[in-house]
Amino acid sequence: MSARLPLPHLRLPDTPPAADEQSLGHLPLTVVVGVTGVGKSTALSALQNLGRQKVLPNRREVADAVMIWPQAGRAVTDREERFALTAQYRAGHPGGMAQALGSLLADTRHWGAAPLFDGLRGLDEVRYAAQHFPAWRFVALGAPDTVRVRRLLGRADGFDQVTGPSATDGNLRSELAALSGGSAVFSPEDLDGLAALEGPACPAAELLAKVRIVLSERRQYDPAAAETYLRTLPPQRALILDTVALSPAQVAQAVQAWA
Description:
This protein has 259 residues and is α/β, with parallel strands linked by helices. The chain has helices at 40-50, 59-72, 79-92, 96-102, 108-111, 122-132, 145-154, 172-178, 182-185, 188-195, 204-220, 223-230, 248-258; strands spanning 10-11, 21-23, 30-33, 105-107, 116-120, 137-142, 238-242. It comes from Deinococcus radiopugnans.
């Protein structure tokens, strides 16, 4: 069994770089910042339609190759287990995904000189990236947690999985309130609104699973703290956008104008 999964035209610096290889930490990357469900992938697709920048393997793929597989020796699909494994990686690598990404060598014949990356999360990753990789620029995308839950419910992504208990007593509202950390993220009114989504197209178990994904991620990464830090950077290094107020096409246009 291989200790690491390959990434296309990217590698760890186990040997000196070839003539066309450069460290991603030295290239002028445009890095999308945001947690699950804020609209990163949709915005990137719209942005690609406007320009010719290459998009690097996404966060999930880099995590699989650099963090998950070396520790677990297997594929891991459960979101909460993945959060735990990436937390273990961060214990020895405080920059988390930023540190992992910045360590890779890229074949610039394939990726070009200024690729895009989706994405970084949380204060520690963003601060590490800003301090250690001065050529990187950041586009932060945000949306309220209730919107993120609704978006997760609306997308058919097999990666959005968690194992564990689902609603058992027939009272979804009480099950939502009992989730660990839920009261710190969702108001009683938020929980009322989420519980009201239950129906034939939205089973209680699915709704609970999506809320657990949001809560698990929030325990690891604080999007508000990351955004607050980015606001301290010069405007040419950080752009902050609301994906509720802006459509994916408007996000892409704003990024293109800023770039």
